[in-house]
């Protein structure tokens, strides 16, 4: 699984940090930051949740 | 950009008068039952507005999300809550700088970004010990007073007002002023003059605060924003924007969460099995709060947008200039949300992609703070008073059917 995050779209809601804290963080300004673009498979469900809940649709998941 | 369009069914002599927005609840914890029928039969339906004109009501989860994420639906609606207000105020065609609720991208992001930093997951985590302390002090005061006490006046409003006052740098002594103004701004039946006057009074209050923070900065968000504005004269923040942003944060920061605290408490008291589950496992607090947010969805009349071009939503054609209402309460009870039995309160269910905080780039800026306040207050309240119970029956409780934000005007409780 490969993840992309569009920081220009991010509106700083922080939902991804709550949902998948091993994969997403926020910088000091509140913009989401990708900690791991190729997280291990056991985090796939959490990342899918984060992508579904992101209000700005800024998270994309691609199977490799 | 008010809705002046006329639809064939608006014409005199047409088949039936248009229905209005469903507002008649049969249970105080559920949206009006009419929404379930609309989701089935007419998910994007024409409704009449009480002050004249008409628009569209969107009730399915999928359509609500699609609409709120679609930039062709503008936030520049020219009237305040025309779908519920018999006498909505007309708003300036060009929104004031900093008016987050009315701005579209990219202007919206220019004003949202400077305040986002105060509401990140990490920043809110750092506030938790202080929130806990504020809650404990209010619970001490309740205990000293002895029941019955009004939970809204003695716990819900003080906790959320103290937290947002400290964060923004507003004096808590001014709570009477801003709580009163919030009540006048959010009343469904407010006349344009009343709401205009209240908005102006709030603006003056905040303008004075901005000036005071410029003279004597503190360790607070308004001071930070003033410093940022003064350091970057070409940036988006001017004194009008600071005043508008500050006013919005102050009202949105105390009123919404206070209502969730009171209504969430009463909901749990009326669902003893759910309360027992939460008491048995305090680690459920985050799930319980998420579920209460979804189940109660206190932005009871939803969000309005205006279509900027002719388009199709949920199979229904919508014309440029028409006002469209996204019903958040209906979307959160739609099986399309992807949870089992959405009409059942279940504090053990996993987090859902609910829309209680809205959806799209406008989604609630303060949602992490709201979660922290709700988790802390509800957990501590039920731990402190194991025998907590309402001191009035449901029939006597003062539900806020008359306010843009649902909840309770008062909630007498005892223990």
Automatic annotation (TrEMBL), chain A:
All copies of domain 4Fe-4S ferredoxin-type, residue ranges: 1-29
Protein name: Ferredoxin
Lineage summary: Bacteria, Bacillati, Actinomycetota, Actinomycetes, Kitasatosporales
Taxonomy, superkingdom: Bacteria
Cofactors named for this entry: [3Fe-4S] cluster
Function (record text): Ferredoxins are iron-sulfur proteins that transfer electrons in a wide variety of metabolic reactions.
Keyword set, alphabetical order: 3Fe-4S, Electron transport, Iron, Iron-sulfur, Metal-binding, Transport
Family matches, as SUPFAM superfamilies: 4Fe-4S ferredoxins
The organism of origin for this protein: Streptomyces humicola
From TrEMBL, chain B:
A Pfam match: p450
Record's keyword terms, sorted: Heme, Iron, Metal-binding, Monooxygenase, Oxidoreductase
Record flagged with keyword Manganese: no
InterPro entries cross-referenced by the UniProt entry: Cyt_P450 (IPR001128), Cyt_P450_B (IPR002397), Cyt_P450_CS (IPR017972), Cyt_P450_sf (IPR036396)
Entry keyword annotation includes Oxidoreductase: yes
Region of interest (Disordered), ranges: 1-27
Family: Belongs to the cytochrome P450 family.
Name recorded for this polypeptide: Cytochrome P450
Species per Swiss-Prot/TrEMBL record: Streptomyces humicola
């Amino acid at each position: 699984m490969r993840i992309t995050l569009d920081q220009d779209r991010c509106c700083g809601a922080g939902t991804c940090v709550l949902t998948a804290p091993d994969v997403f963080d926020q910088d000091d300004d509140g913009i989401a930051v990708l900690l791991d673009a190729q997280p291990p498979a056991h985090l796939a469900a959490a990342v899918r949740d984060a992508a579904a809940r992101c209000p700005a649709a800024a998270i994309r998941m691609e199977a490799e | 950009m008010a809705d002046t369009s006329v639809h064939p069914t608006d014409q005199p002599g047409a088949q039936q008068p248009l229905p209005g927005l469903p507002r008649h609840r049969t249970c105080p914890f559920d949206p009006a039952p009419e929404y379930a029928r609309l989701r089935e039969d007419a998910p994007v339906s024409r409704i009449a507005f009480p002050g004249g004109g008409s628009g569209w009501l969107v009730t399915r989860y999928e359509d609500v999300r699609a609409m709120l994420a679609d930039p062709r639906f503008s936030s520049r609606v020219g009237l305040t809550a025309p779908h519920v207000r018999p006498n909505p105020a007309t708003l300036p065609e060009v929104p004031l700088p900093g008016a987050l609720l009315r701005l579209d991208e990219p202007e919206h992001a220019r004003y949202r970004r400077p305040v986002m930093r105060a509401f990140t997951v990490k920043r809110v985590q750092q506030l938790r010990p202080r929130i806990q302390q504020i809650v404990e002090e209010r619970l001490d005061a309740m205990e000293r007073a002895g029941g019955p006490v009004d939970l809204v006046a003695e716990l819900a409003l003080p906790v959320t007002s103290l937290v947002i006052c400290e964060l923004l740098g507003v004096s808590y002594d001014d709570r009477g002023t801003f709580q009163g103004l919030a009540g006048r701004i959010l009343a469904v039946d407010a006349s344009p003059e009343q709401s205009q006057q209240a908005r102006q009074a709030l603006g003056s209050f905040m303008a004075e605060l901005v000036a005071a923070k410029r003279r004597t900065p503190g360790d607070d968000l308004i001071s930070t924003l003033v410093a940022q504005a003064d350091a970057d004269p070409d940036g988006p923040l001017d004194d009008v924007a600071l005043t508008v942003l500050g006013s919005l944060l102050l009202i949105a920061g105390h009123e919404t969460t206070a209502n969730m605290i009171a209504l969430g408490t009463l909901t749990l008291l009326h669902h003893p099995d759910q309360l027992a589950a939460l008491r048995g496992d305090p680690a459920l607090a985050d799930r319980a709060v998420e579920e209460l947010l979804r189940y109660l969805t206190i932005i009871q009349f939803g969000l309005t947008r205006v279509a900027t071009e002719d388009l199709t939503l949920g199979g229904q054609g919508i014309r440029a200039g028409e006002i469209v209402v996204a019903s958040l309460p209906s979307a959160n009870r739609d099986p399309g949300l992807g949870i089992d039995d959405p009409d059942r309160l279940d504090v053990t269910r996993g987090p859902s992609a609910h829309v209680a905080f809205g959806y799209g780039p406008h989604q609630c800026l303060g949602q992490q703070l709201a979660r922290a306040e709700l988790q802390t207050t509800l957990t501590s309240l039920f731990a402190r008073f194991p025998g907590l119970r309402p001191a009035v029956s449901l029939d006597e409780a003062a539900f806020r059917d008359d306010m843009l934000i649902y909840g309770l005007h008062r909630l007498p409780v005892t223990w």
